[in-house]
Design a protein that fits this description.
The complex is a heterodimer. Chain A contains 14 helices and two strands. By secondary structure, chain A is mainly α. The relative contact order of chain A is 0.13. In chain B, helix 10 packs antiparallel against helix 13 and helix 12 runs antiparallel to helix 13. The chains are: A mainly alpha, B mainly alpha.
Chain lengths: 294, 279
Protein backbone atom coordinates (compact mmCIF):
# COMPACT_ATOMS: atom_id res chain seq x y z
CA UNK A 1 0.00 0.00 0.00
CA UNK A 2 2.70 2.41 0.99
CA UNK A 3 4.35 2.37 -2.39
CA UNK A 4 1.16 3.46 -4.12
CA UNK A 5 1.14 6.79 -2.38
CA UNK A 6 4.66 7.33 -1.14
CA UNK A 7 4.41 11.01 -0.44
CA UNK A 8 1.11 11.43 1.28
CA UNK A 9 0.33 7.95 2.47
CA UNK A 10 -0.30 9.33 5.92
CA UNK A 11 -3.03 11.59 4.64
CA UNK A 12 -4.65 9.06 2.40
CA UNK A 13 -4.55 6.19 4.86
CA UNK A 14 -7.81 6.88 6.75
CA UNK A 15 -9.72 6.89 3.51
CA UNK A 16 -8.29 3.54 2.56
CA UNK A 17 -9.46 2.04 5.84
CA UNK A 18 -12.91 3.43 5.25
CA UNK A 19 -13.13 2.51 1.62
CA UNK A 20 -14.72 -0.96 1.81
CA UNK A 21 -17.43 0.19 4.22
CA UNK A 22 -18.15 3.29 2.18
CA UNK A 23 -18.18 1.35 -1.02
CA UNK A 24 -20.71 -1.20 0.20
CA UNK A 25 -22.93 1.38 1.78
CA UNK A 26 -22.93 3.61 -1.28
CA UNK A 27 -23.43 0.75 -3.70
CA UNK A 28 -26.20 -1.04 -1.79
CA UNK A 29 -28.01 1.73 0.03
CA UNK A 30 -27.32 5.15 -1.45
CA UNK A 31 -27.23 4.34 -5.13
CA UNK A 32 -30.47 2.29 -5.12
CA UNK A 33 -32.03 5.08 -3.07
CA UNK A 34 -31.01 7.52 -5.75
CA UNK A 35 -32.31 5.23 -8.49
CA UNK A 36 -35.56 4.95 -6.60
CA UNK A 37 -35.87 8.71 -6.63
CA UNK A 38 -35.32 8.80 -10.38
CA UNK A 39 -38.03 6.18 -10.81
CA UNK A 40 -40.40 8.22 -8.76
CA UNK A 41 -40.19 10.91 -11.41
CA UNK A 42 -41.34 8.63 -14.18
CA UNK A 43 -44.40 6.85 -15.28
CA UNK A 44 -43.56 3.19 -15.20
CA UNK A 45 -44.80 0.02 -16.76
CA UNK A 46 -43.50 -2.91 -14.79
CA UNK A 47 -39.75 -2.34 -14.72
CA UNK A 48 -39.53 0.06 -17.61
CA UNK A 49 -39.85 3.78 -17.85
CA UNK A 50 -42.61 5.05 -20.08
CA UNK A 51 -42.02 8.75 -19.76
CA UNK A 52 -40.74 11.43 -17.47
CA UNK A 53 -43.54 13.03 -15.51
CA UNK A 54 -41.79 15.06 -12.88
CA UNK A 55 -43.69 15.19 -9.64
CA UNK A 56 -46.97 13.85 -10.97
CA UNK A 57 -46.58 10.62 -9.03
CA UNK A 58 -46.15 12.62 -5.86
CA UNK A 59 -49.17 14.80 -6.44
CA UNK A 60 -51.31 11.84 -7.37
CA UNK A 61 -50.26 9.99 -4.26
CA UNK A 62 -50.51 12.83 -1.79
CA UNK A 63 -54.01 13.70 -2.87
CA UNK A 64 -55.18 10.12 -2.88
CA UNK A 65 -57.48 9.45 0.10
CA UNK A 66 -55.98 6.01 0.42
CA UNK A 67 -52.61 7.60 1.08
CA UNK A 68 -54.08 9.96 3.63
CA UNK A 69 -55.64 7.05 5.43
CA UNK A 70 -52.34 5.21 5.28
CA UNK A 71 -50.59 8.14 6.92
CA UNK A 72 -53.17 8.14 9.68
CA UNK A 73 -52.75 4.40 10.09
CA UNK A 74 -49.00 4.84 10.31
CA UNK A 75 -49.51 7.45 12.97
CA UNK A 76 -51.74 5.15 14.97
CA UNK A 77 -49.39 2.24 14.54
CA UNK A 78 -46.23 4.11 15.51
CA UNK A 79 -47.87 6.17 18.23
CA UNK A 80 -49.65 3.21 19.72
CA UNK A 81 -46.60 1.00 19.67
CA UNK A 82 -44.47 3.69 21.31
CA UNK A 83 -47.17 4.39 23.89
CA UNK A 84 -47.07 0.77 24.98
CA UNK A 85 -43.45 -0.20 24.59
CA UNK A 86 -41.69 2.86 25.99
CA UNK A 87 -43.44 3.09 29.38
CA UNK A 88 -43.35 -0.67 29.70
CA UNK A 89 -39.65 -0.69 28.94
CA UNK A 90 -38.99 2.09 31.42
CA UNK A 91 -41.02 0.46 34.16
CA UNK A 92 -39.27 -2.86 33.70
CA UNK A 93 -35.90 -1.13 33.61
CA UNK A 94 -36.64 0.59 36.89
CA UNK A 95 -37.68 -2.67 38.45
CA UNK A 96 -34.70 -4.57 37.11
CA UNK A 97 -32.27 -1.94 38.30
CA UNK A 98 -33.11 -2.93 41.85
CA UNK A 99 -31.79 -5.97 43.58
CA UNK A 100 -34.41 -8.53 42.72
CA UNK A 101 -34.21 -12.27 42.98
CA UNK A 102 -33.40 -13.98 39.67
CA UNK A 103 -32.85 -10.59 38.11
CA UNK A 104 -30.49 -11.90 35.47
CA UNK A 105 -32.78 -14.72 34.46
CA UNK A 106 -35.81 -12.47 34.32
CA UNK A 107 -34.00 -9.99 32.17
CA UNK A 108 -32.91 -12.71 29.78
CA UNK A 109 -36.42 -14.02 29.40
CA UNK A 110 -37.80 -10.55 28.83
CA UNK A 111 -35.37 -9.89 25.98
CA UNK A 112 -36.53 -12.94 24.04
CA UNK A 113 -39.28 -11.20 22.03
CA UNK A 114 -36.79 -8.74 20.60
CA UNK A 115 -34.73 -11.61 19.30
CA UNK A 116 -37.60 -13.29 17.48
CA UNK A 117 -37.94 -12.28 13.87
CA UNK A 118 -40.97 -10.40 12.61
CA UNK A 119 -41.92 -13.53 10.73
CA UNK A 120 -41.76 -15.73 13.80
CA UNK A 121 -43.59 -13.15 15.93
CA UNK A 122 -46.30 -12.91 13.34
CA UNK A 123 -46.76 -16.67 13.24
CA UNK A 124 -46.65 -17.08 17.00
CA UNK A 125 -49.41 -14.55 17.45
CA UNK A 126 -51.46 -15.56 14.45
CA UNK A 127 -51.73 -18.94 16.09
CA UNK A 128 -52.40 -17.52 19.56
CA UNK A 129 -55.18 -15.35 18.16
CA UNK A 130 -56.60 -17.94 15.83
CA UNK A 131 -60.38 -17.51 15.87
CA UNK A 132 -61.16 -21.19 15.83
CA UNK A 133 -58.41 -23.00 17.66
CA UNK A 134 -56.34 -20.34 19.33
CA UNK A 135 -55.70 -20.05 23.02
CA UNK A 136 -56.90 -16.49 23.50
CA UNK A 137 -60.25 -17.06 21.88
CA UNK A 138 -60.72 -20.24 23.86
CA UNK A 139 -60.22 -18.30 27.08
CA UNK A 140 -62.52 -15.56 25.89
CA UNK A 141 -65.25 -17.99 25.00
CA UNK A 142 -64.90 -20.29 27.97
CA UNK A 143 -64.24 -17.83 30.78
CA UNK A 144 -65.86 -14.58 29.78
CA UNK A 145 -69.11 -13.60 28.24
CA UNK A 146 -67.36 -12.27 25.16
CA UNK A 147 -67.62 -14.54 22.18
CA UNK A 148 -64.77 -15.42 19.90
CA UNK A 149 -63.08 -12.51 18.20
CA UNK A 150 -61.31 -12.70 14.90
CA UNK A 151 -58.61 -10.33 16.08
CA UNK A 152 -56.81 -10.03 12.82
CA UNK A 153 -59.81 -10.25 10.55
CA UNK A 154 -62.14 -7.86 12.33
CA UNK A 155 -61.70 -4.25 11.23
CA UNK A 156 -62.35 -3.00 14.73
CA UNK A 157 -59.62 -5.07 16.32
CA UNK A 158 -56.99 -5.52 13.66
CA UNK A 159 -54.99 -2.34 14.28
CA UNK A 160 -55.16 -2.76 18.04
CA UNK A 161 -53.94 -6.33 17.73
CA UNK A 162 -51.13 -5.20 15.47
CA UNK A 163 -50.06 -2.51 17.92
CA UNK A 164 -50.10 -4.90 20.86
CA UNK A 165 -48.17 -7.56 19.01
CA UNK A 166 -45.61 -4.97 17.97
CA UNK A 167 -45.37 -3.78 21.56
CA UNK A 168 -44.84 -7.38 22.65
CA UNK A 169 -42.00 -7.64 20.21
CA UNK A 170 -40.46 -4.32 20.97
CA UNK A 171 -40.56 -3.47 24.66
CA UNK A 172 -37.30 -5.31 25.38
CA UNK A 173 -35.31 -2.79 23.41
CA UNK A 174 -36.21 0.29 25.48
CA UNK A 175 -36.02 -1.88 28.57
CA UNK A 176 -32.41 -2.79 27.88
CA UNK A 177 -31.47 0.75 26.90
CA UNK A 178 -33.07 2.35 29.94
CA UNK A 179 -31.60 -0.27 32.22
CA UNK A 180 -28.10 0.51 31.00
CA UNK A 181 -28.73 4.22 31.41
CA UNK A 182 -30.16 3.87 34.90
CA UNK A 183 -27.34 1.64 35.98
CA UNK A 184 -24.84 4.24 34.92
CA UNK A 185 -26.24 6.69 37.44
CA UNK A 186 -24.12 6.42 40.52
CA UNK A 187 -25.62 5.61 43.86
CA UNK A 188 -24.17 8.68 45.56
CA UNK A 189 -26.45 11.06 43.78
CA UNK A 190 -29.49 9.22 45.08
CA UNK A 191 -28.07 8.98 48.56
CA UNK A 192 -27.28 12.64 48.73
CA UNK A 193 -30.72 13.60 47.53
CA UNK A 194 -32.62 11.27 49.79
CA UNK A 195 -30.60 12.44 52.74
CA UNK A 196 -31.88 15.88 51.92
CA UNK A 197 -35.34 14.44 52.31
CA UNK A 198 -36.44 13.91 48.74
CA UNK A 199 -39.29 11.48 48.25
CA UNK A 200 -39.00 8.50 45.93
CA UNK A 201 -41.11 10.15 43.26
CA UNK A 202 -39.01 13.30 43.47
CA UNK A 203 -35.89 11.23 43.12
CA UNK A 204 -37.32 9.72 39.99
CA UNK A 205 -38.46 12.91 38.33
CA UNK A 206 -35.55 15.12 39.31
CA UNK A 207 -32.63 12.75 39.03
CA UNK A 208 -33.44 9.64 37.02
CA UNK A 209 -35.48 11.17 34.23
CA UNK A 210 -33.14 14.01 33.33
CA UNK A 211 -30.08 11.79 33.41
CA UNK A 212 -31.50 9.27 30.99
CA UNK A 213 -32.74 11.90 28.59
CA UNK A 214 -30.15 11.26 25.91
CA UNK A 215 -30.78 7.53 26.03
CA UNK A 216 -34.47 8.23 25.83
CA UNK A 217 -33.93 10.32 22.73
CA UNK A 218 -31.84 7.71 20.96
CA UNK A 219 -34.31 4.97 21.85
CA UNK A 220 -37.21 7.10 20.68
CA UNK A 221 -35.58 7.82 17.34
CA UNK A 222 -34.58 4.23 16.72
CA UNK A 223 -37.98 2.86 17.62
CA UNK A 224 -39.85 5.48 15.62
CA UNK A 225 -37.81 4.77 12.53
CA UNK A 226 -38.14 1.05 13.11
CA UNK A 227 -41.93 1.17 13.49
CA UNK A 228 -42.58 3.70 10.78
CA UNK A 229 -40.64 1.67 8.21
CA UNK A 230 -41.94 -1.72 9.27
CA UNK A 231 -43.53 -3.88 6.62
CA UNK A 232 -42.93 -7.57 7.31
CA UNK A 233 -44.96 -7.87 10.51
CA UNK A 234 -47.94 -6.14 8.93
CA UNK A 235 -47.63 -8.11 5.73
CA UNK A 236 -47.67 -11.42 7.56
CA UNK A 237 -50.37 -10.59 10.08
CA UNK A 238 -52.97 -8.73 8.08
CA UNK A 239 -51.59 -7.76 4.67
CA UNK A 240 -52.92 -4.28 5.18
CA UNK A 241 -56.44 -5.48 5.72
CA UNK A 242 -59.11 -5.97 6.72
CA UNK A 243 -60.57 -3.25 4.57
CA UNK A 244 -57.36 -1.27 4.62
CA UNK A 245 -57.54 -0.61 8.35
CA UNK A 246 -53.96 -1.72 8.90
CA UNK A 247 -52.54 -0.32 5.68
CA UNK A 248 -49.72 1.91 6.79
CA UNK A 249 -47.68 4.18 4.55
CA UNK A 250 -44.75 1.79 4.49
CA UNK A 251 -47.05 -1.09 3.69
CA UNK A 252 -48.45 0.94 0.82
CA UNK A 253 -44.96 1.31 -0.62
CA UNK A 254 -44.58 -2.44 -0.46
CA UNK A 255 -47.95 -3.32 -1.94
CA UNK A 256 -47.73 -0.74 -4.71
CA UNK A 257 -44.44 -2.24 -5.81
CA UNK A 258 -44.79 -5.94 -5.16
CA UNK A 259 -48.46 -6.55 -5.65
CA UNK A 260 -49.48 -3.94 -8.18
CA UNK A 261 -46.22 -3.26 -9.98
CA UNK A 262 -46.80 0.50 -9.76
CA UNK A 263 -43.13 1.16 -9.35
CA UNK A 264 -43.07 4.89 -10.05
CA UNK A 265 -45.85 5.46 -7.59
CA UNK A 266 -44.24 3.21 -5.00
CA UNK A 267 -40.95 5.01 -5.39
CA UNK A 268 -42.65 8.35 -4.84
CA UNK A 269 -44.15 7.09 -1.61
CA UNK A 270 -40.80 5.58 -0.66
CA UNK A 271 -39.03 8.88 -1.09
CA UNK A 272 -41.76 10.55 0.91
CA UNK A 273 -41.11 8.13 3.72
CA UNK A 274 -37.42 8.90 3.53
CA UNK A 275 -38.17 12.60 3.92
CA UNK A 276 -40.41 11.86 6.87
CA UNK A 277 -37.68 9.72 8.45
CA UNK A 278 -35.21 12.55 8.16
CA UNK A 279 -37.73 15.03 9.51
CA UNK A 280 -38.52 12.83 12.52
CA UNK A 281 -34.88 12.52 13.42
CA UNK A 282 -34.12 16.20 13.10
CA UNK A 283 -37.29 17.17 14.93
CA UNK A 284 -36.66 14.84 17.83
CA UNK A 285 -33.12 16.08 18.19
CA UNK A 286 -34.19 19.71 18.11
CA UNK A 287 -36.95 19.04 20.64
CA UNK A 288 -34.56 17.45 23.02
CA UNK A 289 -31.98 20.15 22.58
CA UNK A 290 -34.50 22.70 23.56
CA UNK A 291 -35.32 20.52 26.51
CA UNK A 292 -31.84 21.15 27.73
CA UNK A 293 -29.39 18.40 26.97
CA UNK A 294 -26.09 19.05 25.21
CA UNK B 1 -34.76 -4.07 58.76
CA UNK B 2 -38.06 -2.58 59.83
CA UNK B 3 -41.11 -4.46 58.71
CA UNK B 4 -42.66 -2.15 56.20
CA UNK B 5 -46.18 -3.17 55.15
CA UNK B 6 -46.24 -0.71 52.29
CA UNK B 7 -42.87 -1.95 51.15
CA UNK B 8 -44.02 -5.53 51.30
CA UNK B 9 -47.11 -4.75 49.26
CA UNK B 10 -44.96 -3.04 46.70
CA UNK B 11 -42.62 -5.98 46.56
CA UNK B 12 -45.47 -8.37 45.96
CA UNK B 13 -46.87 -6.13 43.26
CA UNK B 14 -43.50 -6.05 41.55
CA UNK B 15 -43.13 -9.80 41.54
CA UNK B 16 -46.67 -10.33 40.34
CA UNK B 17 -46.06 -7.88 37.53
CA UNK B 18 -42.79 -9.57 36.59
CA UNK B 19 -44.49 -12.93 36.61
CA UNK B 20 -47.20 -11.54 34.40
CA UNK B 21 -44.68 -10.16 31.91
CA UNK B 22 -42.78 -13.43 31.84
CA UNK B 23 -46.05 -15.18 31.14
CA UNK B 24 -46.88 -12.78 28.34
CA UNK B 25 -43.47 -13.34 26.81
CA UNK B 26 -43.34 -17.11 27.11
CA UNK B 27 -46.94 -18.09 26.55
CA UNK B 28 -47.04 -17.72 22.75
CA UNK B 29 -43.80 -19.65 22.47
CA UNK B 30 -44.95 -22.33 24.83
CA UNK B 31 -48.29 -22.63 23.06
CA UNK B 32 -46.54 -22.99 19.72
CA UNK B 33 -44.12 -25.59 21.00
CA UNK B 34 -47.00 -27.46 22.55
CA UNK B 35 -48.95 -27.43 19.31
CA UNK B 36 -45.93 -28.62 17.36
CA UNK B 37 -45.92 -31.77 19.47
CA UNK B 38 -49.52 -32.67 18.79
CA UNK B 39 -51.18 -34.74 16.15
CA UNK B 40 -53.47 -32.91 13.81
CA UNK B 41 -56.73 -33.96 15.40
CA UNK B 42 -55.44 -32.85 18.78
CA UNK B 43 -54.49 -29.50 17.25
CA UNK B 44 -58.03 -28.73 16.25
CA UNK B 45 -59.70 -30.34 19.21
CA UNK B 46 -61.81 -28.41 21.65
CA UNK B 47 -61.00 -27.46 24.34
CA UNK B 48 -57.42 -26.80 23.34
CA UNK B 49 -54.97 -28.08 25.88
CA UNK B 50 -51.87 -26.21 26.83
CA UNK B 51 -49.97 -29.38 27.49
CA UNK B 52 -50.46 -32.09 24.90
CA UNK B 53 -51.89 -35.37 26.14
CA UNK B 54 -49.52 -37.34 24.03
CA UNK B 55 -46.35 -35.96 22.57
CA UNK B 56 -45.46 -36.80 19.03
CA UNK B 57 -42.59 -35.73 16.90
CA UNK B 58 -44.33 -36.48 13.62
CA UNK B 59 -44.42 -32.83 12.57
CA UNK B 60 -40.71 -32.46 13.04
CA UNK B 61 -39.95 -35.68 11.26
CA UNK B 62 -42.04 -34.70 8.27
CA UNK B 63 -40.56 -31.21 8.29
CA UNK B 64 -37.00 -32.41 8.30
CA UNK B 65 -37.35 -35.28 5.88
CA UNK B 66 -39.96 -34.21 3.38
CA UNK B 67 -39.54 -30.45 3.11
CA UNK B 68 -36.54 -28.25 2.34
CA UNK B 69 -36.54 -27.00 5.95
CA UNK B 70 -33.08 -28.33 6.65
CA UNK B 71 -31.86 -26.62 3.52
CA UNK B 72 -33.51 -23.37 4.60
CA UNK B 73 -31.78 -23.58 7.96
CA UNK B 74 -28.48 -24.26 6.27
CA UNK B 75 -28.92 -21.31 3.95
CA UNK B 76 -29.74 -19.01 6.83
CA UNK B 77 -26.66 -20.20 8.65
CA UNK B 78 -24.35 -19.74 5.69
CA UNK B 79 -25.69 -16.31 4.88
CA UNK B 80 -25.71 -15.10 8.47
CA UNK B 81 -22.18 -16.28 9.14
CA UNK B 82 -21.04 -14.80 5.86
CA UNK B 83 -22.62 -11.49 6.76
CA UNK B 84 -20.97 -11.50 10.17
CA UNK B 85 -17.61 -12.14 8.57
CA UNK B 86 -18.05 -9.37 6.02
CA UNK B 87 -19.42 -6.84 8.47
CA UNK B 88 -16.77 -7.43 11.12
CA UNK B 89 -14.01 -7.22 8.56
CA UNK B 90 -15.26 -4.08 6.92
CA UNK B 91 -16.69 -2.50 10.03
CA UNK B 92 -13.59 -2.90 12.16
CA UNK B 93 -11.42 -1.29 9.52
CA UNK B 94 -13.88 1.56 9.25
CA UNK B 95 -14.36 1.93 12.97
CA UNK B 96 -10.69 2.45 13.64
CA UNK B 97 -10.18 5.68 11.71
CA UNK B 98 -13.50 6.85 13.07
CA UNK B 99 -12.15 6.33 16.56
CA UNK B 100 -8.53 7.35 16.30
CA UNK B 101 -7.68 9.32 13.20
CA UNK B 102 -8.33 12.86 12.13
CA UNK B 103 -8.85 13.62 8.50
CA UNK B 104 -10.70 15.98 6.24
CA UNK B 105 -14.35 15.18 5.77
CA UNK B 106 -14.43 12.78 8.70
CA UNK B 107 -17.68 14.10 10.10
CA UNK B 108 -19.25 14.14 6.70
CA UNK B 109 -18.34 10.56 5.97
CA UNK B 110 -19.47 9.36 9.37
CA UNK B 111 -22.78 11.12 8.92
CA UNK B 112 -23.08 9.65 5.46
CA UNK B 113 -22.75 6.14 6.83
CA UNK B 114 -25.28 6.76 9.56
CA UNK B 115 -27.54 8.58 7.18
CA UNK B 116 -28.13 5.47 5.15
CA UNK B 117 -30.18 4.23 8.08
CA UNK B 118 -32.80 6.80 7.11
CA UNK B 119 -33.33 5.23 3.74
CA UNK B 120 -36.37 3.01 4.09
CA UNK B 121 -35.55 -0.60 3.37
CA UNK B 122 -38.65 -1.07 1.28
CA UNK B 123 -37.83 1.67 -1.14
CA UNK B 124 -34.49 0.22 -2.14
CA UNK B 125 -35.83 -3.29 -2.71
CA UNK B 126 -36.87 -2.92 -6.32
CA UNK B 127 -33.86 -0.88 -7.47
CA UNK B 128 -31.68 -3.46 -5.72
CA UNK B 129 -33.55 -6.22 -7.47
CA UNK B 130 -33.02 -4.75 -10.92
CA UNK B 131 -29.41 -3.91 -10.22
CA UNK B 132 -28.62 -7.39 -8.97
CA UNK B 133 -30.55 -8.88 -11.83
CA UNK B 134 -28.37 -7.02 -14.29
CA UNK B 135 -25.27 -8.16 -12.46
CA UNK B 136 -26.51 -11.73 -12.51
CA UNK B 137 -26.27 -11.94 -8.75
CA UNK B 138 -29.85 -12.84 -8.00
CA UNK B 139 -30.51 -16.02 -6.11
CA UNK B 140 -26.99 -16.35 -4.73
CA UNK B 141 -25.56 -16.42 -1.24
CA UNK B 142 -23.28 -13.52 -1.99
CA UNK B 143 -26.06 -11.12 -2.86
CA UNK B 144 -27.72 -11.59 0.51
CA UNK B 145 -24.46 -11.43 2.36
CA UNK B 146 -23.68 -8.08 0.79
CA UNK B 147 -27.12 -6.57 1.15
CA UNK B 148 -27.58 -7.74 4.74
CA UNK B 149 -24.09 -6.48 5.38
CA UNK B 150 -24.92 -3.06 4.02
CA UNK B 151 -27.77 -2.79 6.48
CA UNK B 152 -25.64 -3.75 9.46
CA UNK B 153 -22.45 -1.88 8.67
CA UNK B 154 -23.58 1.56 9.92
CA UNK B 155 -24.55 0.26 13.33
CA UNK B 156 -21.43 -1.87 13.63
CA UNK B 157 -19.09 0.97 12.65
CA UNK B 158 -20.75 3.14 15.27
CA UNK B 159 -20.51 0.37 17.86
CA UNK B 160 -16.89 -0.57 17.20
CA UNK B 161 -15.87 3.05 17.09
CA UNK B 162 -17.11 3.34 20.65
CA UNK B 163 -15.23 0.26 21.76
CA UNK B 164 -12.00 1.29 20.07
CA UNK B 165 -12.19 4.73 21.62
CA UNK B 166 -12.40 3.17 25.04
CA UNK B 167 -9.02 1.52 24.65
CA UNK B 168 -6.27 3.77 26.05
CA UNK B 169 -4.09 5.14 23.24
CA UNK B 170 -0.92 4.46 25.21
CA UNK B 171 -0.98 0.80 24.34
CA UNK B 172 -1.00 1.49 20.64
CA UNK B 173 1.57 4.23 21.01
CA UNK B 174 3.89 1.87 22.81
CA UNK B 175 3.62 -0.62 19.99
CA UNK B 176 4.19 2.01 17.36
CA UNK B 177 7.21 3.41 19.14
CA UNK B 178 8.62 -0.06 18.94
CA UNK B 179 8.30 0.15 15.19
CA UNK B 180 4.83 -1.14 14.39
CA UNK B 181 2.83 0.48 11.66
CA UNK B 182 -0.70 1.61 12.48
CA UNK B 183 -2.13 -1.37 10.70
CA UNK B 184 0.08 -3.73 12.61
CA UNK B 185 -0.76 -2.06 15.90
CA UNK B 186 -4.39 -2.40 14.99
CA UNK B 187 -4.09 -6.13 14.52
CA UNK B 188 -1.80 -6.77 17.45
CA UNK B 189 -3.08 -4.40 20.09
CA UNK B 190 -6.53 -3.03 19.38
CA UNK B 191 -8.29 -6.04 17.96
CA UNK B 192 -7.27 -8.52 20.63
CA UNK B 193 -8.51 -6.09 23.26
CA UNK B 194 -11.81 -5.58 21.47
CA UNK B 195 -13.16 -9.06 22.02
CA UNK B 196 -16.40 -8.00 23.71
CA UNK B 197 -17.03 -5.30 21.12
CA UNK B 198 -16.47 -7.68 18.25
CA UNK B 199 -18.67 -10.27 19.92
CA UNK B 200 -21.42 -7.68 20.34
CA UNK B 201 -21.15 -6.68 16.70
CA UNK B 202 -21.13 -10.31 15.63
CA UNK B 203 -24.25 -11.30 17.46
CA UNK B 204 -26.09 -8.15 16.41
CA UNK B 205 -25.27 -8.87 12.80
CA UNK B 206 -26.05 -12.57 13.04
CA UNK B 207 -29.49 -11.99 14.54
CA UNK B 208 -30.27 -9.22 12.07
CA UNK B 209 -29.28 -11.36 9.16
CA UNK B 210 -31.02 -14.49 10.38
CA UNK B 211 -34.24 -12.60 11.03
CA UNK B 212 -34.37 -10.66 7.80
CA UNK B 213 -37.33 -11.38 5.57
CA UNK B 214 -37.70 -8.64 2.95
CA UNK B 215 -34.26 -8.79 1.38
CA UNK B 216 -34.29 -12.56 1.18
CA UNK B 217 -37.83 -12.55 -0.13
CA UNK B 218 -36.94 -10.13 -2.89
CA UNK B 219 -33.54 -11.34 -3.95
CA UNK B 220 -33.79 -15.11 -3.79
CA UNK B 221 -36.37 -17.34 -5.38
CA UNK B 222 -35.19 -20.91 -5.59
CA UNK B 223 -35.59 -23.41 -2.79
CA UNK B 224 -31.88 -24.03 -2.82
CA UNK B 225 -31.22 -20.49 -1.67
CA UNK B 226 -34.26 -19.60 0.36
CA UNK B 227 -33.68 -18.72 3.94
CA UNK B 228 -35.63 -19.87 6.97
CA UNK B 229 -37.82 -16.78 7.26
CA UNK B 230 -38.94 -17.03 3.66
CA UNK B 231 -39.36 -20.76 4.07
CA UNK B 232 -41.73 -20.19 6.97
CA UNK B 233 -43.72 -17.87 4.79
CA UNK B 234 -44.07 -20.46 2.05
CA UNK B 235 -45.20 -23.02 4.61
CA UNK B 236 -48.12 -20.79 5.55
CA UNK B 237 -49.79 -21.34 2.24
CA UNK B 238 -48.43 -24.83 1.87
CA UNK B 239 -49.70 -26.13 5.16
CA UNK B 240 -52.92 -24.18 5.31
CA UNK B 241 -54.68 -25.26 8.40
CA UNK B 242 -52.18 -27.85 9.59
CA UNK B 243 -51.03 -25.76 12.47
CA UNK B 244 -49.08 -28.49 14.16
CA UNK B 245 -46.79 -28.64 11.15
CA UNK B 246 -46.56 -24.89 10.91
CA UNK B 247 -45.74 -24.57 14.60
CA UNK B 248 -42.98 -27.11 14.25
CA UNK B 249 -41.44 -25.03 11.49
CA UNK B 250 -41.69 -21.91 13.64
CA UNK B 251 -39.97 -23.68 16.51
CA UNK B 252 -37.17 -24.85 14.24
CA UNK B 253 -36.88 -21.34 12.85
CA UNK B 254 -36.65 -19.80 16.28
CA UNK B 255 -34.37 -22.23 18.06
CA UNK B 256 -31.03 -21.42 16.43
CA UNK B 257 -31.20 -17.70 17.04
CA UNK B 258 -32.62 -18.20 20.51
CA UNK B 259 -29.82 -20.58 21.33
CA UNK B 260 -27.19 -18.17 20.07
CA UNK B 261 -28.76 -15.36 21.98
CA UNK B 262 -28.86 -17.26 25.25
CA UNK B 263 -25.20 -18.06 25.01
CA UNK B 264 -24.05 -14.61 24.00
CA UNK B 265 -26.67 -12.52 25.75
CA UNK B 266 -24.18 -10.46 27.63
CA UNK B 267 -22.57 -9.30 24.41
CA UNK B 268 -25.92 -8.75 22.76
CA UNK B 269 -26.95 -6.37 25.49
CA UNK B 270 -23.63 -4.59 25.36
CA UNK B 271 -24.00 -4.18 21.66
CA UNK B 272 -27.42 -2.66 21.97
CA UNK B 273 -26.42 -0.15 24.55
CA UNK B 274 -22.91 0.75 23.55
CA UNK B 275 -22.70 4.26 22.27
CA UNK B 276 -26.13 5.08 23.55
CA UNK B 277 -25.23 5.61 27.15
CA UNK B 278 -22.91 8.42 28.10
CA UNK B 279 -19.99 7.56 30.28
Amino acid sequence: MRFLFPHNFRRVMPYIWLLPALFIVVWISLYPGYRGFIWSLHQTQYVRFVRFIGFENYVARWTDPRTIRAIINSGIYVGGSLAFSLPLGLLLALILSRPIKFRSLIRTILIIPWVTSQTVSALLWTWMLNPSFGLINYWLAAYTGVGKIDFLGNPRFAMLSLVLINAWRSFSFPMVMFLAAIQSITEEIYEAASMDGASRWKLFTSITLPLIKSTFLITLIMLTLNFFNMVTLIFLLTSGGPGGTTETLSYLVFSDAFLFWRLGSSAALGFTIFLINATFSVAYIRLMQRGGID
Amino acid sequence: MRKNPKGLLEKIAIYVFLLFMIGVVLLPIFWTVSTSLKTFDRTVSYPPRLIPERITLESYVELLTRTPMLRFLLNSTIISLGTVFLVLLVGAHAGYPAARLRFAGKDFLMLLILFTAMIPGISILIPLYTMMSRLGLLDTYIVLIITNGAQCIPMVVWLLRGFFQAIPPDLEDAARIDGCSRLSAFYRVILPLSGPGLAAAAIYTFIWSWNDFLLAFTLTTSDSKKVTQVGLYTFITGYGIEWNRLCASVVLGLMPVLFFFLILERYFVRGLTAGAVKG
